[in-house]
Amino acid sequence: MESREVRYIAAIAQYKSISKAAEALYISQPSLSKYLKSVETRLGQPLFQRIGMEYIPTYLGERYLHYAQRILDSEQEWNEEFHDILQNGYGRINLCLPIMLSNVVLNQVLPLFYQRYPNIQINLFEEMNFVAERALADPSIDLTIYNLHELPQELDYQILGQEEILLVAPPDHPLTADAQPRPGFGHPWVSLSRFRQEKFVLLYPDQNTGNAAMQLLNSYHMDPDILLRTRNSELTIRLAINGMGITFAPERYCRYLLTAEQQRRCCFSVGRAKPFTNTLVAAYRRQRYLSTHAQGLIHILQEYCSSGR
What we know:
- The chain is of the alpha/beta class.
- Among the domains are: 3-76, Winged helix-like DNA-binding domain superfamily/Winged helix DNA-binding domain (Arc Repressor Mutant, subunit A, Orthogonal Bundle); 162-278, D-Maltodextrin-Binding Protein, domain 2 (3-Layer(aba) Sandwich), CATH 3.40.190.
- Helices cover 45% and strands 22% of the residues.
């Protein structure tokens, strides 16, 4: 295997089409078809079978792609390290994160980053969900920033900080009238069990906060009356303060969207012995080389989180 060969074969597998792969590679379709045929002739077996209009890897093709991906990963990591060594501060970061977290965090962090690294291009890949899966599946992603309730097992990561996941209720909801300060909790505390009969507006369980909320509700043996599910974190908070139901949201999201008065009337700590929290991490594929500027971005994010903003 050599670099051009694996890029060509990987592109065919990615696009499932000779014409689309050729377009992405900036070569002609006949050239790519001829190249594939020469590789398959050399190997003595086909790498793809054609099903309908799609090129689907054979078993040999699957194994080829397994090792081809290693070559592509190593090539990209070498290029990044070489760039770090020789280009003296020029580079790029492909950064994947949830859309709402991008709004909340990056408008604070990026101005600081560009003061220190003015020649670095950042490409944002903003997702609604499956952020960790994108980091695993796409080798072009350098860093993934996201909140999670349980630390990842299949990615390397650095912890940026923690924050409470708050219960958000309509203003002056009667069940929050006796909310009281409690040591270790950042907001007046309410007992979640009291909301057993309330309607909820929640994120989907395949999103981090949605999954964490269901785990919390299950720990109280609650079967919530879910009025609405959405992938839009901002919408759940807006609907809650407009009287539609109860929701859960990371503390930073509440600070970003709500006035201080709205936070006082609508946002409450929950949890038994300790607050219900999220961990913000910077995650990346195992053993991936991190450029100097990617490490710098992580450090700035850690500074931001430790400041309590």
